[in-house]
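Before going further, learn to read the protein records used in this course. A complete example follows; check for yourself that the lines match position by position.
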Amino acid sequence: MAAVSAAGVRAAGAQQPACSAPEPVCAARESVFAISAFDPLGSAVRIDADMLVTVRHVVADEVEITVLLEDGTRRKAQIVPTGFKGDLALLKVEGLPEGPVASIDAARDGEAVFTVGADASKRTIVAYDEGQVTALPAKGFSRARLHSTAYSQPGNSGGALVDADGRLVGIVASGGEGRFEAIPASAIAVLQAESGPAYADENAETGAASRICILKLEGVRSGQRRIADEDAQALETACRRSNNRQNLDLAAQALGQSGRLEDSIHLYEEALALDPNAVNTRLGLAISLHIAGRYEEEVIHLRHLMEAAGEDPQVLRLAIQAGIWGGDRALSEKAFAMLELTNPQMAKAARRFLDDPPPRPKPRQ
């Protein structure tokens, strides 16, 4: 998520506005704090008297993090060294006032969930509109995430994803296009078990890699059309070592947009191997395969996407085209039937494509 300023943001309990969520969700705001670190504004969740948990990409390798308290004062927090393989970090805070600690539980498929995090525009901790769990973490994948439609925005990263009873089921990590991700709350116990002074070297490497990855991504977005070989290698290396699947997605997207399609495809495949339920990852992979003209491989992923995001106009457009050029007419017709229901205007052009498809495009390298 894009960085926003932490100036003037108050933490939990500070003249909080009216909350329309269930009362336990509104109460969960009291265990969430605004923080400022590598990212100017992020969120963190209280899990012990002097301990917060947040996402690594908000803090990177900062030595000290600022925690914004309810009365407008600030406290300094330090990252607890960790060897955890994922986008989480523990923060130890001296002088944190007494307050509630998050109650941790596991999410249930299809249940209502809510993002609770720092909101720059409202200058406080906010409980956002209700969403729904769309996919539980894939079993057997230690870095798989919890997927939902619970809205989140810049500044919420590191905040709480809670159920209707206010129990912490995930730490808000990333999202877009109506699809949002959280690291399951069960990972916090693993994080705690793999944290302490003995992990100082691993922690320093992960933090530095996170910073380098994000800075290089920013440079690529504002830079040249084609990424040089050495820059592409540096980007891939840093994003891999950050232990954050979302960074792999962003690097893959940047490489694809620069014309390095094979590099993009490899990174997306690597990311998808960490979390097969990641819809945005799979969609990014499908787009890179489509541009590369590898339609037979693409349709495999589009079949999954039709089940997970079958109303998305981009998914439907790709499925119609790749189904024809990749030898899966049934996929094309299924996507067209859905397009007729959801976007009749687009369906007219799609019907013409199906009735008289153009020749298969030549692969792009």
